[in-house]
Write a structure and sequence with these properties.
2 copies of one chain form a homodimer. Chain A has 450 residues and is mainly alpha-helical. Helices cover 64% and strands 6% of the residues of chain A. The first copy, chain A, has 22 helices and 6 strands. In chain A, α15 packs across α16 and α19 (321-344) runs parallel beside α21.
Chain lengths: 450, 450
C-alpha cells in the first residue's frame, strides 16, 4: 500500500528527468503522497530536485517543502530569488514560514516579506518572528478556527467555512468572547449534530480548558499536551487573548529531538549534531568531553603516581587498573541513567532522594557482592588469592561509591539547572575513575602491608 | 490556569478524606481535569485512592484510570473483585481495556469478561486480546467512525451520531465499501459543509489513503504516522477490511518508551526499567553489562600482564593506563552514538558505510592530533618528555581505532538484527579498553627500547 523508495526507482527517475519525460513523472511522482515525494527529492541532486519540485501543483509544493530534510531544504531555498521564496512561503502554514524565514538575515527577511502578495499572511509571519524559537509563541501557527460565543450555529457554519479554507486540520473550534479572550472549546462533532438555531454559548464547554501562554517554554508545551492527551493546544497572550495554536506534529518532532539530544549528551557530545554536519562542527561538539576525560586521566595518573613504590614492588597491581575504572564507570552510568530519566519525566516531586539513594545502595550491594565473589573465585583458581582479595574488596567498595555518585550527581546538576543528561557521561565516569583508583591502591597497600 | 499539585494540597486532601468531607472533595477535586486527578491519586495510599476514585462520576473514573502510573493502576485494579473490574473496563476504550486485561491470567480474564454486561464491548476486547502487544493489532482501538460510500450525507449524519457516542475523539471518518473494505477518508470539515443530498461517494477522497495492517510492528506504525503527519491511522486486516484505528497519543507514548529504552541500553541496562521496580529486578537488568565489563577488565589484565617486565622497569608506564582506556571509551561511545541514532531514524538507505567511516576518521584525526599535542605539551612541562611521547603517540592511534570501531560495531550489530543501541555501551568500551592497552604498552616498549 505504501510507497517504497528503491534504487531502481531513483535510476528510472533520473533517466526520466534526463529525457524530460513529463508523462513518466505525472504517473509515477505526482500521484504520490507529499511525504513520499519529499523522500524522493531528498535523494536527488539540486538541479533534479528543482525540476521535480516545479512539476508539482502549488499546494503540494509547500507540503513537500516542509517534509524535506533540513539541510536539503536550506540548500534548495537559498538557490531561490527573494520573489520565488516569497511565493513558496505564502503557501506554507504561518509557523513553518516563520521558521524558514527566521534562519535568514534581517535584510533578506525584509526583502522576502516585501515580495509577499497576501498582506494578512505576511503580517502573521512577521508577528510570529517576534517570538523566541523555544517558546510556545515560536511553535504556534496563526491558522486556527474560532467562533464568537454569541454566534448562532448557522452563522458559525458560514464563518467557519470561510476560516476553514486556510486551516488544514480542524480538531476543535476555539470559542472567544467579544474581547477575543479564549473562553471555551467546541468540538466539530458537537457542531455537526447541533440545532442550527442554537447559540454557540449553549453548545461550547468551558470546563478544564487547557491552553498555554506565548511565553511558555517548548518543554512546558510538550508536557501539557502529553499530560492532557491533546492533538492541538490553543495559545493565549498575557491578556488571555487567543493568538494561535500548536499541533501535535510539532510536539512529536520536539520530543524526538529532545530524546536525541539527551542520548548525545549522555554519549559525550555537547551540541545537537546531525550526521550530515561538517567535520569541523562534529569535532568541536565532541572535544569538551574528551578534554574532561583527559583531565580525568591526568588526575588518575597523579593518584597512581602516589603509589609508585607499591607498583615497583608488586607490578601485578597495575594489571587490574582497567577493571576497577571500567566497573566504576559502568555502575555510575547505570545509576545515573535512571535518575536522569526520572528527572526528564518531571518525577521526584517531594524530594525522594533519601529513598532513592537507599534503593541504589541495595542494588549496588547485591551486584557488588556478586561481582566481588566472582572475581575472587577467578583469582583463586589462577592461584593468586592475595591479589584477588585486593581486587575483590576494592571492587566492592568502588561499586557502592559509584552507585552513590551516579545517583547524586544528576540530582545536584539538576538543582543547579544544568542538564542532568550530561551526568551520565563525563562527570560520573571521570569522578569514579579517580576515586576508584584511590580506593584500589589504598586497599592494595593495606593488604600487602606496604 | 493549570492545576499544580502541592504538598499543602495533599495534606488538606488527606484531612478531608479522614473526616469524610464530601463537599471539600466536590469543590477541590471533581472540577479538575482527569489528568490532574490521576496525578493526585498517584500520590495517595491505596485506601485514600479508592475513596477518591469512587467519588468520581463513571466517565471520569475510566479517564483517570488510564492516566494513573502503571504500578499504581495495577495495585488498584488487583484490589478489585472480577465484577468491579468488569464495570471499570466497560467504560474504557477497547484498546485500554485489552491492555489491562492482557496482564491478567487466562482464568481471571475469562472471569472478568463473563461479568461484563455490554456484549459488544466484551467481544471487541476479546478480539483485541488475540493480537501481539507490539503490533498494530495490539495498539489499535475498536472505536472509530465509519461510513458506507453509498450513504447520502443525511443518512451518514444519523449513523454518525449513533457511532460517535462511543468515540471520544473524531478526526476523520473512514469510508468503506459494502464488503467493509477501507476505500477512503472523509474529513468532518468536509461533511459539515456538504449538501445533505450528496452521497458520500461524491465527497470522500481516495487519494493516498494511508493505513497499516494488523500485523505491522509498532515501530512501523510510528514511522508511518510520523512520516505522514497523522493524528490517527486506520488499521486493516489481510483482506483490506477496516478493523480499527490507532491514535497519536499511543504513538507518542511508544516514541518516548523507545527513546527511554535506547538511553538505558546505551547506559548498560538490559531491560526496560522504571525507577519503581524492585531491587532484584533492577539488579538483574544491570548485571549483564557489569559482567561484560568485568570480562573486559580481566582481558585487560591479561594484556598488561604480558608487559609485566616493562612495568617493573618503568612503573610510571602504569600511570597513564586510565587515561588511555577512558579516551578510547569516550571516542568510541561518541562515534557509535551518532550511528545508532541514524540507524534508529532508518537512514543509511544505500550503504553509505565507506563515506561514514571516512568522515569519522577525519573527525578522529582532528581530535586525535589536538589531544596528542596537548598531552605531550603537559608531559613536557612536567619534565617527562619520553613518557609523554609514548602517551601522545599511543593516544593518537587509540583515538583513530576507537572511532573506527565505534562506527563499525553498531552497523554490524544492526546487520545481525541486534539492537545497535547496545553498542554504545558494553561492546565498544570493552573492545576499546583491551585494544587501547595493547597499543599503549606496545608503543611504550618500542620507544623505551625494551
Amino acid at each position: 500500500m505504501q510507497f517504497e523508495l528503491t534504487k531502481i526507482f531513483l535510476e528510472e527517475l533520473n533517466d526520466a528527468i534526463a529525457r524530460d519525460d513529463q508523462s513518466w513523472i505525472n504517473v509515477n511522482i505526482l500521484e504520490l503522497h507529499y511525504a513520499d515525494i519529499a523522500e524522493i527529492i531528498d535523494q536527488l541532486e539540486l538541479d533534479e530536485a528543482k525540476y521535480i519540485y516545479y512539476c508539482l501543483p502549488e499546494d503540494t509544493q509547500s507540503d513537500v517543502l516542509m517534509e524535506l530534510e533540513e539541510d536539503i531544504r536550506d540548500r534548495f531555498l537559498s538557490s531561490l530569488s527573494s520573489k520565488e521564496m516569497a511565493d513558496q512561503l505564502e503557501n506554507l502554514d504561518s509557523d513553518d514560514a516563520a521558521d524558514i524565514l527566521g534562519e535568514l538575515s534581517e535584510d533578506k527577511i525584509q526583502e522576502v516579506i516585501s515580495h509577499m502578495e497576501d498582506d494578512d499572511a505576511a503580517e502573521d509571519i512577521v508577528d510570529l518572528l517576534n517570538y523566541d524559537d523555544d517558546t510556545a509563541g515560536g511553535l504556534m501557527q496563526k491558522e486556527f478556527i474560532q467562533a464568537r460565543m454569541d454566534w448562532p450555529v448557522n452563522r458559525c457554519l458560514v464563518e467557519l467555512r470561510r476560516q476553514a479554507e486556510d486551516v488544514e486540520q480542524v480538531y476543535t473550534i476555539y470559542v472567544v468572547d467579544d474581547m477575543n479572550r479564549l473562553v471555551g472549546l467546541l468540538s466539530l462533532k458537537r457542531l455537526l449534530f447541533a440545532d442550527p438555531k442554537n447559540k454557540i454559548r449553549e453548545l461550547y464547554t468551558d470546563k478544564n480548558i487547557i491552553s498555554v501562554k506565548t511565553s511558555d517554554s517548548d518543554e512546558q508545551v510538550a508536557k501539557v499536551m502529553e499530560k492532557y492527551d491533546l492533538v492541538a493546544v490553543p495559545v493565549v497572550d498575557l491578556q488571555g487573548k487567543l493568538v494561535g495554536r500548536i499541533t501535535i506534529d510539532d510536539i512529536v518532532d520536539f520530543i524526538k529531538e529532545e530524546a536525541d539530544k539527551d542520548f548525545q549528551l549522555a554519549s559525550g557530545i555537547s551540541e545537537k549534531i546531525e550526521s550530515n554536519f561538517s567535520v569541523w562542527r562534529i569535532s568541536r561538539a565532541r572535544l569538551p568531553w574528551l578534554l574532561i576525560g583527559m583531565l580525568g586521566g591526568i588526575l588518575g595518573a597523579q593518584v597512581i603516581s602516589g603509589f609508585e613504590t607499591g607498583i615497583s614492588k608488586i607490578p601485578a597491581l597495575a594489571f587490574f587498573i582497567p577493571l576497577i575504572t571500567a566497573m566504576g564507570g559502568n555502575v555510575g552510568v547505570q545509576s545515573s541513567a535512571i535518575v536522569v530519566q526520572s528527572l526528564a519525566k518531571g518525577q521526584d516531586l517531594f524530594g525522594t532522594i533519601a529513598r532513592r539513594l537507599a534503593k541504589e545502595a541495595l542494588v549496588a550491594l547485591i551486584n557488588g557482592i556478586l561481582l566481588s565473589v566472582l572475581i575472587y573465585g577467578i583469582a583463586y583458581i589462577f592461584g593468586n588469592s592475595q591479589l584477588g582479595l585486593v581486587v575483590s574488596i576494592s571492587l566492592f567498595i568502588v561499586v557502592i561509591f559509584a552507585a552513590m555518585f551516579g545517583t547524586l550527581i544528576p540530582l545536584i546538576l539538576d538543582k543547579y539547572n544544568i542538564d542532568p543528561a550530561l551526568a551520565t557521561g563525563p562527570f560520573v565516569t571521570t569522578l569514579n575513575d579517580v576515586l576508584g583508583l584511590f580506593i584500589y591502591f589504598s586497599v592494595g597497600m593495606l593488604l600487602f602491608n606496604m
